[in-house]
Design brief:
By secondary structure, the protein is an alpha/beta fold. It is 36% helix and 28% strand. The protein contains 11 helices and 14 strands. The strands form 3 sheets. Strands 6-7-8-3-9-10 form a 6-stranded mixed β-sheet, sandwiched between helices. Strand 12 and strand 13 form a beta hairpin. Helix 3 packs across helix 4 and helix 8 crosses helix 11. The longest helix has 16 residues. The model has no long low-confidence stretch (mean pLDDT 92). The structure holds adenosine-5'-triphosphate. The site of adenosine-5'-triphosphate has 10 residues, from helix 1. Adenosine-5'-triphosphate binds next to helix 1. GO terms for molecular function: ATP binding; ATP hydrolysis activity. Keywords: ATP-binding, Nucleotide-binding, Transport. This is ABC transporter ATP-binding protein.
């Protein structure tokens, strides 16, 4: 069973298409990042998956049933963009309360608090928590009952770099346990190595849906190559290979993926005058800009 199958789903408000003919699947254990500018339709899509709002068209299959069905709700973990808790409760009380609602043991609630790094603060009132700590309670809440599908809307906003790293470790564990994960984020750099597939939305439409490698292949954005030479040799290298001499010791140029290996062997042929070579492929941020701008030009 595919945990999430979205087929030609649309959502309209009057004449406005918030989500426009989107098809997307998330398989068991897959981590899919959903990207898009403000207003692209990401939250609307998540709300439809949760059964909180009905699609105007298309078909949504969530954990083998309809969106919002009892079976689907019992097996979905959801972390909303902004998490609101009862400030007068402690982290432990709040999570145990959610656990009871989901018929999950209090032991799992306590274990999850520890897993998200709130062991020490568990018995303090949530109103004394920082934004990042609240976000961690939200994450723990989303993981109660070991969901088969996790929807995480901007899960790392408010988290510091170390906490973000820890967050993605948890996401990886979840996916290894078979949970399908759909997460939306504006923090592109952190997604590059931490997700299996990237889905890009723009003005309600899905512009791209593939691995970072495939996105790079089809965008054909150039690779940046920086060549570092011993003193006074950059001119000679630039004259033969091309590119721009940055100073006496370095040359910068770009190449396409298919020319990369040929270029490496031409650079190696210079022998010991080359000190180092750095190759930087298009970042997710470059790709995101490329796909969004292409869509704007086409419309
Ligand atoms: N109930 C509603 N009535 C009318 N328009 C709505 C409604 N809900 C969402 N929209 C519109 O649909 C579009 C998509 O909104 P949505 O919240 O899904 O975007 P998003 O991609 O999640 O944005 P962000 O990154 O800012 O959270 C926006 O233009 C929004 O104004």
């Amino acid at each position: 069973m595919t945990p999430l199958r979205i087929q030609n789903v649309s959502k309209t408000y009057g004449d406005f298409r918030s989500v426009d003919d989107v098809s997307l699947m998330v398989n068991q254990g897959e981590r899919v990042a959903l990207l898009g500018q403000n207003g692209a339709g990401k939250t609307t899509l998540m709300r439809m998956i949760l059964g909180l709002t009905k699609p105007s068209g298309g078909k949504l299959e969530v954990l083998g049933g309809g969106a919002g069905s009892r079976a689907a709700r019992a097996q979905i973990g959801f972390l909303p963009e902004s998490v609101a808790f009862h400030g007068a409760l402690t982290g432990r009380e709040q999570l145990r309360h959610f656990a009871r609602l989901k018929s999950v043991s209090t032991k799992q609630a306590d274990d999850l608090l520890e897993r998200v790094g709130l062991y020490e603060a568990a018995d303090r009132k949530i109103r004394t928590y920082s934004k990042g700590m609240r976000q961690r309670v939200g994450l723990a809440q989303a993981l109660l009952g070991t969901p088969k599908l996790a929807l995480l809307d901007e899960p790392t906003s408010g988290l510091d770099p170390i906490s973000r790293h820890e967050f993605y470790d948890i996401v990886e564990e979840l996916s290894q346990a078979g949970t399908a994960i759909l997460l939306s984020s504006h923090a592109l750099t952190e997604l590059e190595t931490r997700t299996d597939r990237i889905a890009i939305m723009n003005k309600g439409k899905l512009l791209a849906d593939s691995s970072l490698r495939d996105l790079r292949d089809s965008a054909r954005l150039p690779i940046r190559v920086d060549i570092f030479t011993i003193a006074h040799e950059a001119d000679r290298v630039a004259a033969e290979i091309g590119g721009e001499r940055i100073n006496g010791r370095s040359v910068t140029l770009t190449c396409q993926q298919e020319d990369k290996l040929k270029l490496v062997s031409r650079i190696s042929a210079f022998g010991p005058i080359i000190e180092d070579v750095e190759m930087t492929p298009a970042s997710l941020e470059d790709l995101y800009r490329h796909y969004s701008l292409s869509a704007q030009e086409a419309s």
